[in-house]
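Bumping with the actual sequence this time:
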Amino acid sequence: MSSKQPDYYFTIEQSTTAEYKDRGSKFIAYAYPVTDVDNVKKHLQKLKKEHTKAVHHCYAYVIGNDRNNFRVNDDGEPSGSAGKPIYNQILSKQLCNVLVVVVRYFGGTLLGVPGLINAYKMATMLALQTVPVVQKPVEIIYNIHCDYTKVNDVMTILKQCNANIIKQEQQLFCNILVGIPKVRLLEALFKLEQMHTIEIKKV
């Protein structure tokens, strides 16, 4: 397998939910687009408030297009029976920047580990089937420092290259934090460097 980083990644842009039932137990899956662990915590807190009577709030998330930032949580279910099947469904769709939480209401019958694995997998699969998968460019983050008179020219170049302006501070000098699509990086840097009077630093 090539270790070359991909130019694009797949994610979701809207949240969704789906339900799966097995022998009286109800598994409600919630899928959310997330960009950092703070997002994850907020969604978990909200669901725990909404579902106070649920016995488990199991989840998995994958953040970052290299998929290295991930976590699985069984929340009291037998080890490997909840978080891992959720995580495997996210991976099987090659998604990142996604959180899936499955809320379980116990129906009185024990499902056993194979039954639990299947239920958490099915609930996650159903939720992820209902939401469109979006292809996005992998972005390389740069900080651009320039005189305020150059801002319009810089912005024109960034727009042409479909760059994503993350943050902009404008005074006498302007700082722009920007995500430049990897596929347009050489073109963007070439055009920006032609301007001479600006500083470009990779973050």
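The tokens above came from a reply further down the thread. The radius of gyration is 21 Å.
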